[in-house]
VanZ family protein (Shewanella nanhaiensis), 132 residues
Amino acid sequence: MFYKLTVSIALGFFVFILWAIYQANTGSSNLFFDLIQPLPYGDKLGHFGLFGLLTLLANLASRCRTLSIGRFKLYWGSIAVSLFVLMEELSQGLIPTRTLDMMDLAADALGITLFSLLTYFIATNTRISRTD
């Protein structure tokens, strides 16, 4: 039951992020953009939180499966979100209504990293961890 709920929440959150990206790509405004815009570094905090939370959800939805590279273990969910973020951020250089911003990419990377560490803490203290 927990697994199905986690997958559903992760997919729903991913669809929300896709919608937000579409809104930004088309130059549209929405309530979420309006709420975060007046905050200092609000855009960067949004990147950190959105992609960090997506990372945690993706890791939990994949049952914390890992890929071993040498002595390092990387979560499949973290890898998937990292690739998605990299493609999305780089594509902004091709979209007239967007700006390629390396600080956004840095905020994304920090969120992915910290939420991957949170995944590690959760996985080592629960029974949801499964390495392949």
Notes: Helices lie at 2-25, 31-36, 42-61, 76-91, 102-124.
